[in-house]
Each structure stands twice: as C-alpha cells, then as structure tokens.
Amino acid sequence: MLDDVASSAVRVALKGLAQRQRVIADNIANVETPRFLAGRVQFEDALRTAVEDGTSPQEVTPEVARSLEPTRENGNNVNLDHETLTHMDTVLRYQTMLKALDSKYSLLRSVIRGGA
Amino acid sequence: MSGGPFRAIGIASTGVTVYRKWLDAVSDNISNLNNATTTAGEAFRERFVIAQAVDYGSGNGGVQVGGIELGSAEGRLVHEPDHPLADENGYVRYPDIDLGSQMSQLMMAQRGYQANLSVVDRAYDAYQAALQLGRNS
Amino acid sequence: MSIQPIGPVAGPLRITAPAGVEAASPGNAAEVFGNLLTQGVDTLQQTQANADALAVQAATGDLQDAHDYMAASTEAALATQMTVAIRDKAVAAFTEIMRLQG
Fold first, then answer.
1. Contact call for residues B21 and B49 (beta carbons, < 8 A)
2. The predicted structure's pLDDT at residue B93
3. Cβ within 8 Å, pair A115-C88
C-alpha cells in the first residue's frame, strides 16, 4: 500500500531522522566522555540520488559515521550547541514527515469514505 | 529502557544519570573541602566520576559511569597550631581540592544534565507526534 | 470603514464552465458535466503531484519553506475531497434518474 516514490521517500526519511535522533541523544549523553567522537547519520544524499535516478528509495538505508572534527583536550569532539540545534531541526523534520505520511493516508481515506 | 520504540529517551536518561552522579561527586568534594584531619590520618580524597560510552559506535548505547577514581589522600599540610587536631609541630592535613576546578566541573555537569533533560523533552514531543499518525480525521 | 460584499470562494479546485458555455441547455449538459469532471481530475492530479514533489524535497532536506509543503498537501486534500464530492453527486443523480424510469 502506498508504494509511490513520495511515500517511500517519506518513509526512508522517517527512518533516517529517527536514527539521527538516537545518535544525537547518544552524542549529548557523551558530551564529556573522553575520546568520544560524535556520530553523524547520513541519508539525504543517497535518497536524493535514488529519487533523481528513478531507483526505488526503499533501498536507501541511513548510515552512521564518526565525526572527524577537531577534538578538545579530552579527545571528545561533541559540540553541545550544534547537537542541540540539530536535534531541534531533526524533531521538526520528523514531525513534518509524519504529517506527510498522514496526509497520504487521509487522501486515501477520503476517497474510500466518499463525501459523506 | 535499553531498547524499544522510544530509545532516544532511554539514551538521554543514561546521560541524566551520569551527570547527576557527577553533580553528586562534585558536591561531595566541595562539602569536604575544608575537612581537616590529623597529619597521621588521610585527607578526604577527591571523587572523580569516569564517564564511559556504552556500546560505542552503535549510536544508541548512551553513557554510563565507568568507575569512580579517588584523588590523593596526602592532601596538603597547613600550619595551624591552634587547631584541635594539630600535631606537635602545629600542622593539620587538608584535602588538596581546588574550589575553582570544582566550580567549573559543577557548571559542566549541570550543563550536561540540563542538555540531556531537554533531549528527553524534545524526543517526547517527536514520539507523541508519531503516535498521532493516521488518527487525523 | 467600508464593508466589502462577500466574494466567491476561490478554492484550490476552480471549477468553471468551459469558455463559451454560459448556461447548460439540456442538449449539452452531459458534455458540460463531463468537462467539469475532467478538469477536476486534471487539477487533482496536478495538486497531488505538487504535494508529492514538495514531500520528496522535505524528505531529502531540500525544502526551503515548511509552509509551502503544508499548503500543497492541504490543497491536495481539498481537491480530492472536492472530486469525491462531485463523484458522489453524479452517482446520486444517476441513481435518482434510474429510480424515475423504473
């Protein structure tokens, strides 16, 4: 059900953003842990390429990498400001994607139910 | 809360726990800053909380207290002949804890504690929105 | 303060009689209705495609303004509801006519 490109892209984004949320929570929990390198979740580029090439976005899986930014004295490179702002952005985008999926379901529902 | 659909809240809560323990350690250090002992005894040893990533690299392990380390028991000798605990040369032993360093640690721990709590807040909103999926009309 | 008269509602789905047809005469009523329906379905497809394109942009993080997507998806929802309403009315009319003949 609902396997069009937009719905699939939205589902991939939801998956990626949920994982990004967990990774940011992990980064913030480890903001003072020695030798901890911040995690980064990437899925946007792969998703964009899949949509542009016309391949199925469903194949896109989010990838986690470690940040190579310079570290502080304790070998940690988590930047709390950056993580906090990215988290807000991620939550808002996650909510937008939920709305997108919801409106897809609503279209289907109004066709099934009719104008009554 | 090791897994499950609301994992981000669980991860942030590991952070809340670690920073609370750090706050406890710092307040312990500060309150014992002026504990004098006899030169024969041990000075209060500074508490260090060791933060350790859980399941590092997985991105959803969070953090834990890897252990508590204790500072030197030697402290510093202060010449206070009037002190009731002073030895025959007039010395007492004080912990060698720097208040300035404790205060900056207090700020770091507090900032970490609050940051993790606000992650819980935001993750809660996101999960609430997820639970509303499909309920629209 | 001047009070403006209430104007026509400008919805996402603008259904107007095809040019040159002012009032439907019994002879061409079917054609007029058919055109309305075709137009409606075309508009529906357009608004849905637009909402989909913006949803993909939001998914890849390329969406500039959140309100663009919200407006587009609401328009798609309204266009769908409008088309469904027209479909239901057409079916109801057909049923009514069949009932009169029977």
1. yes
2. 94
3. yes
User: Would strands B91-94 and B76-79 be described as parallel, antiparallel, or unpaired?
Assistant: antiparallel
Q: How far apart are CA B18 and CA B113, in angstroms?
A: 8
Residue C59: list chain A partners with CB under 8 A. 6, 9-10, 12-13, 47, 97, 100
Helix (H, G, I), strand (E, B) or coil at A31: coil
How many angstroms separate the CA of residue C14 from the nearest CA in chain A? Answer: 18
Q: Tell me the per-residue pLDDT of C25-62, one tens digit each, with 9 for 90 and over.
A: 666 777 887 887 788 888 899 999 999 999 999 999 99
| Partner-chain residue, chosen from B12, B22, B51, that has the shortest CB–CB distance to A28 | B12
The pLDDT of residue B45 is: 94
Helix (H, G, I), strand (E, B) or coil at B73: coil
DSSP A59: G
How remote is the C-alpha of B11 from its chain's centroid? 17
CB B97, CB B76: distance < 8 Å: no
What are the angstrom distances between the C-alpha of B117 and each of A28, A87, B8, C14, C81?
10, 13, 11, 50, 43
pTM (two decimals): 0.84
Strands A39-42 and B76-79: unpaired
**What's chain B's length in residues?**
137
pLDDT tens-digit series, residues A50-74: 999 988 888 899 999 999 999 999 9
**A65 and chain B in contact, CB less than 8 A:** no
CB environment B43-60: b (16+ within 10 A), e (fewer): bbbbbebebbbbebeebb
Task: Answer whether C85 touches A (CB < 8 Å).
Answer: yes
Q: Give the residue on A whose Cα is nearest the Cα of B115.
A: A28
Residues of chain A found within 8 Å of residue B18, distances taken between Cβ atoms: 29
Say how far apart CA A18 and CA A90 lie, in whole Å.
8
Give CA angle at B4 (A2, B126), nearest 5°. 60
Which tops the pLDDT comparison, B113 or A116? B113
